[in-house]
Amino acid sequence: MDTIASLFSFITTPVSWVIVQFHTVYGAIFGPDTGWAWGLSIVSLVILIRICLIPLFVKQIKSTRAMQTLQPEMKKIQERYKNDKQRQSEEMMKLYKETGTNPLSSCLPILAQSPFFFALYHVLNGIATGDTIGVINQSLLESAQKAHIFGAPLAAKFTDGASKVESLGASLTDVRVVTAIMIVMMSASQFFTQRQLMTKNVDTSVKTPFMQQQKMLMYVFPVMFAVFGINFPVGVLVYWLTTNVWTMGQQMYVIRNNPTPGSKAQAAYLERLYKHVTHHGKTRSRGEKAIVKAIVAKGRDRNDAERKFINGLTKVGFAAQPDGTVIKSEAQAAAQAEDGTPTSAAAKRQQPKRQSKSQRQSKAAGEPTSLSKSDEPEDAKPSGAAGAAKQAAPKPGSSGRSKAQSGQRKGGPQRPKSPSKK
Fold this sequence. Notes:
By secondary structure, the chain is mainly α.
C-alpha cells in the first residue's frame, strides 16, 4: 500500500490542506479535538470533490444512455456472430467507434475519485502511525489522534489489535462495532444504488450482456466494499459512506427527472408530466421541454409509455409541438368560447335532418327535392269532378306511354276515379 500511496503523493498535500481548512471552521464550533470537527471535515471534503465531479457524472449519464441506445444493435451483432466470438468483438468495437461511445465512461467518477481516496488513506494512515504528512503538523496530528467518532478513533481499523487500539485511547469493542456498522451501511448503500439503477432506470425491452454485467456488479461491488472495508481506517469509512450516500441521492434525482427511455422510471415520469400539462396547459421547465421534444421527434419509434403520453394529450385536446411545448389543439380551441367555457353548439355534434323516402330517392336520381303527391296534405288535394279533371289533364310534353302507364285512356271521356280508391 505504501507504493500505491507514493504514486498519489502529489495530491496528499492538497487533500490535507482542504481537511485542515474545514477543521479550522468546525473546530471553532465543536472544539478542535472532537470527532465532530474532524469527521465533518472529511464529509465536507467529499462534498467538495463530488461537486467538482458533476461534469464527469453528466458525461457518465450520457455514456450510459448511449450504451443503452446501442443495445438493440449489440443484440443483433451477438445473434449474427454467436459462433464467432472474435468477429463479434470486432463488430462491437466497430460499433463503439462509429457511434463515439465508450463502455468505460460509466466508470469515470470512480476513477476520478481514486487519487483523492488514496491520498486521504495516506493522510489517515500517517495519523495512525504518528507521522506528519502534507500540511498536518505535530499539533494537528495530536488533535486528530484524540478525535473519536462514536468511541472509535479516526485512524483505527477493524483489523487492528487491542494494543494498537488502546494506544489511540479506545477499546477494541467500540472500534469493531463502529467499523462493522459503517461497513454494512457502506455496502448496503452501494447495493441500493445499483439496484435502483437496474430496476427503475433500465430499458427492459432488450436484454444484452451489458445488462447482465450491470446486474452482476450489483452484487459484486457490495461484497468488495465489505472485504476491503475491514482494512480501511474509520476516517476512510466516513469518506466512502458519504460518497455512496451522495451517489445514491444524485442518482435518485436523475432517475426521477431524467429517466432512461423505455424504463419504469420514464413511465412514472410521463404520468406525472401528463397530469401537470393537463392541469396547467404547458410544460414548466427546460428539461420537460427537452423530453417532450425528444418524444415528438421519435415519431413511430416511440415506446409504449411515450405513445400513451401523446395519445393522452390528444384525447384531452392538447398537442405536443416539435420544440417541446404543449398547446391546445385547434379542435379544442374551436370548442371553447372566449371565456374558456365549452359552447353547447360546438360541444354537441350536429346531426343531419332526417329526410323522407321520396327525398332520398329524388336525391339519388339527381332530381330536385320536392313534395310528392303522397307528401301533399289531404286538404290540398282536389276532390270530386274538379279533382278528376285536373288529374285527367295531360301535362305538356308528356307522351302516350306515360298516359298509358298512369291508367288513362287514349281517347274518349275519362272515367272518374272511384272515391274508394282515393
